[in-house]
Every structure is written in structure tokens, then in C-alpha cells.
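Student: Send me a single protein entry containing the residue sequence and its fold in C-alpha cell form, directly below this note:

Tutor:
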Amino acid sequence: MRIGYITSNRRVGSRYKYVEMFSRVADVDTSIETKNHPGDYDAILVTGDKHTHHRIAMAAGIPYILIENDVASLRRGGGPDDAEREMVENAAALLLTSEGHHEYLARHYRLPDVTEIVHLRPLLKDLCFDPLPKRPRTVVYAGGIVHRVSSRIGYRTYNVDLFPAIARAGWEIHVYPSWRDPARIRAYEDIGCIIHDHVPQAALYRELSQYAVGFQGYSVRGPQSYVSQCMPNKTWEYGIGAGIPTLGFNTGRSGAYYDGRWGLVAPSLEAFGETLDKLKGWEITEELRRSEVMDQDLPAFERLVAACG
């Protein structure tokens, strides 16, 4: 089966792993011209959330597989909407990243018969690298940041409470921001964070391997609907991908996956220092890392592709 992939952003971040898995069971074309010639394909692969790429497939009468890596109506609040309903209910198959997203969508929409939940775990091939020399008493965060609590994604205001709590514990903080905005960068530099340039996904795990601990979690400020339901790639990115232990806080469901396995979830900001001390030298075995890769989810991708046949 020939599948065309439509996205408005060629830097697809952690979703590249989904595209790679689909390519193992079908001929996937990721060229930028896909949206101009949808009729050349047996099916279309589209990303959801706030995008409308599915309408290209609908207009061409081509079945589409929807990657709903995020749920816009859940993140912004206010409940379901007609545009999201159209996107979800017309899909031939649906790929979700979390059980919470499945529960939410199933309450409000009619889901495709083939709906799969595949967590954003690393690919086995991406674990094959030589780790960099370790930098002691360092905490790294790679992902989106904001600096104003009033933002609709105010749960990413790490500069207000979370990173200052890490600094007070005597640990150095390194940030690889997804969004490079001068005001945001300044706000994090002002509290002592060391900001790094973008690192391609293919090289990110090795880059992160030099740090002692990775941070996963959210501020208690800002809307929490997203926090409680998401299953972000950082759940596995540090411990399984980079091989460094994870410090969690306000993780929603995701912390339960790694707490006591490849990291610890701190019960409070005041407990950051004690929790970080416990994570020093935390061993993550190769056996554990290899047991948590997306390669094991291949049957789910086979079912998603078959739904378009």
C-alpha cells in the first residue's frame, strides 16, 4: 500500500517515530508534494490536533489515518467542537498517544473501528550510541517552555517554581527549548538556566546522555486538563532513550510508568533535593531500555494500515 504523509511541519519532532513505524508496513511518501497529489496514494497519513490536513484526503475521496498526538479541545478547554468531530469521525483509522486521550475522545465522538494507542516510546535503533561523558549534578529538560502563567499552556512555566526549586537544591539546569523566543529564553537565563541550540531528534538521545538527570512534568499553574491526560514522549525520552534517570513532578498518569523503574516522581517542590540525591547514579539496564521500545508495537501499525485496504 502506498501512503502519503501530509504535515505542515517537516520537523515533526517525536512523531518521526510513528512515520518510521508506518514505513515498516507500507510505502510511505513524506515528500512535500503529497498534499498536491493526494490521488496518487491508497491512503493518507495526517496529523491532527489543530490541523485540517484531513480535508485534503476527504476532498480526494482517499481514506486517511489520523495521528492524534494531541487533542486541541482538551488542551484549550471548552469541550468538543464540530471541526474536531469531523476530523475524528471521518478517519479510516486513529492513532492515539495516551489512554486519557482515548477516554476523552470516546466520550464525545464516534471513533473509527480501528483505534490504537501507541505511546511515544523510542525506536530500538535510536538506542545505539556511545554515551557522552557525564556532567555531575546537572538536570536537563528538552521540550516546550513558556514564561507567563497567563498562557493557555501555562503548565509549561517551568521558570516560576520548578526550575528554581532544582537550582535551590544545588543542581545546574540545561534546557533544549522546542520554541526559541527571545523573551522566553531571557526569562530562563535570568534564573540561571543554560540554554542550548536545537538538536535534531536523531542526535537528541546521545546529547541528553551527558546529563545526570532529565526532568519530566509540569507546573501546577495554568490549565491542568492536558497535564492529567497526556502521555508525553519525555516519559521515555530520558530513561529509555538517553539512559539517564528521570525526575518527575505533577506528571499526571505518565509518572506511574517510570516511578521506581527509570526515575522517581517527587511529591512536592520541597522534596526535589532529596529526590535528586536518590537519582544520583541510578542504574538503568540495557534490558529495561530495550523492553520499552516502540518496535514492539508493530502489530498496531499493521492494523492501522489494513483499515485503509
